[in-house]
Specification:
The protein is of the alpha+beta class. The protein is 34% helix and 13% strand. A hairpin with a 5-residue loop joins strand 1 and strand 2. The longest helix is centred in the middle third of the chain and has 29 residues.
Length: 292
């Protein structure tokens, strides 16, 4: 170090030979060597969270949720969005058609039950063709005095015999057949419960006591009831099923519901019949004709 100091700070000697040499500068303490930067301590490994997942944030990349960064991908698409574009378009069109059909139906039902107005006067026929006979509204259940009668629809058939003659069968209870299908059935169909009953109500309300139709509704109700009977004659008996049906005739048997034992009300228990004319069934009525 002395040599280093001497070289770093050379002493100046006077050039005069007479005088004493000048005093030497006091020695300076040696300069400390520059301290080395402390070594960075190794970072501790992130502790594993329960379940094996690391609880430490990732070392590289921006933090999740920081501005300008995109969130992690979510769950896979479900529903319509999981379909390809053509299927999405088809599904959207199908949903749109269902929605339009539901709105049209609700509008027709509203016009049917609403009081007479300008729209029903102008488009009453279109509304009736949409509503009758399947969607007719009946509010008799909420009447002050609801119906207290049992109405059975019955049919008999003219059969062509092997000798060429005609034989008339007895009366078959069509309503009884529906009742047998409904009894002990937890989920009876709408057809079993209401088709024949509503068809008969439709016919009765659109015909007078002489069975004359009242306008277009009367003709429509007769055609509807005729088709129902034509599709049910095969269920009557093996004789009818194997024979040739020439004509059919319908009638209704109406009996009053008897009051409970504690009531003093007296009502008749005798049935009242309404007999319709004979009808000749065609292939169209049976659903096998070209126009069926």
């Amino acid at each position: 170090m002395d040599r280093y100091d001497e070289g770093a700070h050379p002493r100046q000697v006077a050039a005069t030979p007479d005088g004493p040499p000048p005093a030497e500068d006091p020695p300076r303490p040696p300069e400390a060597a520059p301290e080395a930067a402390p070594e960075a301590a190794p970072e501790a490994a992130p502790e594993a969270a329960p379940g094996g997942a690391s609880s430490a944030a990732p070392e590289h990349g921006p933090a999740s949720g920081a501005p300008g960064t995109s969130a992690a991908p979510g769950r896979p698409a479900a529903g319509i969005t999981a379909l390809s574009l053509p299927y999405q378009i088809a599904a959207a069109l199908a949903l749109a058609l269902v929605a339009v059909g539901a709105l049209v139906h609700l509008g027709m039902v509203f016009l049917h039950v609403a009081p007479s107005n300008t729209l029903t006067k102008q488009h009453g026929r279109a509304v009736d063709e949409w509503i009758y006979p399947e969607f007719e509204q009946n509010w008799k259940l909420f009447a002050p005095n609801p119906l207290q009668q049992n109405i059975d629809v019955q049919v008999r058939v003219d059969l062509r015999t092997a000798e060429g003659g005609v034989r008339t069968t007895g009366w078959y209870d069509l309503s009884g057949l529906d009742g047998a299908d409904i009894r002990h059935n937890l989920l009876p169909s709408h057809t079993q419960q209401n088709e024949l009953r509503r068809a008969w109500d439709f016919y009765s309300s659109s015909h007078d006591n002489a069975n004359r139709p009242s306008g277009l509704r009367g003709e429509l109700s007769e055609s509807y009831l005729r088709r129902i009977v034509a599709r049910r004659v095969d269920r009557l008996s093996a004789e009818v099923r194997e024979g040739t049906v020439e004509r059919v005739q319908l009638r209704s048997s109406t009996t009053n519901v008897q009051p409970p034992p504690w009531s003093t009300e007296k009502v008749s228990d005798k049935p009242v019949y309404r007999v319709l004319p004979w009808w000749t069934l065609s292939a169209k009525d049976a659903g096998t004709g070209a126009d069926a």
